[in-house]
Specification:
heterodimer; A: mainly beta; 6-stranded mixed beta sheet; about 55% strand; B: about 120 residues; mainly beta; 7-stranded mixed beta sheet; 4-stranded antiparallel beta sheet; 11 strands; globular
Chain lengths: ~120, ~120
Amino acid sequence: AQKVTQAQTEISVVEKEDVTLDCVYETRDTTYYLFWYKQPPSGELVFLIRRNSFDEQNEISGRYSWNFQKSTSSFNFTITASQVVDSAVYFCALSLIQGAQKLVFGQGTRLTINP
Amino acid sequence: NAGVTQTPKFRVLKTGQSMTLLCAQDMNHEYMYWYRQDPGMGLRLIHYSVGEGTTAKGEVPDGYNVSRLKKQNFLLGLESAAPSQTSVYFCASSYSIREGNQPQHFGDGTRLSIL
């Protein structure tokens, strides 16, 4: 069975600070996907990124960056120069590459960016 | 392009009542899913479908039934609602592996309260 743990329940920072959201996962499978989703106060789920287990390269997209380390089973998400609009609940998730792609979500981290 | 549409967006039920949540997608996706989101627990998979006429249980299927009579629709039924089923329900859809294995598209959610 797969498991995703986001140990940080809530994080609060001041605007323009950098913030890292932690994600640790467990799976016995060697081929899997890792995801990050954003859930703003309006409630919808916004897809941010998908990485497969074969690709450990870090990725940067604007102020967002992701650090994937198979050695520690972690897929951490960093927001640089945070903005108030980044306030949301962020979910890390995992699915196997084969089969029905069922997503296993972490508990979520509520991020509050204060002006 | 509507994507994934969930009906209704809000509903209040009394214990013991029944209802059906409708999910419709216009992307010709093969796979469809129902998740529930409870505070502090992230999203959990209720049931899923890998094609028209097929359904399977997810992590938390008890108390729910589903049907996929048409490829574009995935219905979630509560036969006898219980307060423990108060939650936000999300539907999602995606292509199958052979079609390109893209990330799941989520609907905006249905907020369901059982009194």
